[in-house]
Write a structure and sequence with these properties.
globular, 37% helix, alpha/beta, Molybdenum Cofactor Biosythetic Enzyme, Chain A
């Protein structure tokens, strides 16, 4: 199964600096059995984010697209809105589990506005931009991601 990673950060886009958040998402992709088909860093631009999500889902046929960044309360944080513009259905339990997993360590966990949803047969998940938050958020959902992706790929649910 193919995955794409989109890091949303105006300060990091166009630079050659390290993308630690993206690195953590590469690790998560491997953990759930996905091969990273592509990875990019783009600025906080709502239309561009939506365009790249459509690209990875529709043109590259990725089963999983994970974003990092742009999920807070700052005026430039528009990743959830860009994601909502391209998905067919939301999967609210995924970001709920991620936020709950962060509440013990992250003081401002409730300020994350990340969402998850389905576009065709692609699952799109918004992660926070902090590299330190990604492992615990990933841990919260890693056990369910393979099942979710299998269902989206057309496998029958074991309970009918």
């Amino acid at each position: 199964m193919r995955a794409a990673i989109v890091t949303v950060s105006t300060s990091k886009s166009g630079s050659q600096g390290a993308d630690e958040s993206g690195d953590r998402l590469v690790e998560l992709a491997a953990r759930v059995g996905a091969q990273v088909a592509g990875r990019e860093v783009i600025p906080d631009d709502r239309e561009l984010i939506s365009e790249r999500l459509r690209h990875w889902a529709d043109e590259e046929s990725c089963a999983l697209v994970m974003t990092s960044g742009g999920t807070g309360l700052a005026p430039t944080d528009v990743t959830p809105e860009a994601t909502r513009a391209v998905i067919d259905r939301e999967a609210p339990g995924i970001p709920e589990a991620m936020r709950l997993a962060s509440r013990e360590r992250a003081r401002h966990w409730m300020l994350s506005r990340g969402i998850a949803g389905i576009r065709g047969s692609t699952l799109i998940v918004n992660f926070p931009g902090s590299p330190a938050s990604i492992p615990e958020a990933g841990e919260a959902i890693a056990g369910s991601l393979p099942h979710a992706l299998a269902l989206l790929a057309g496998e029958r649910h074991p309970h009918g």
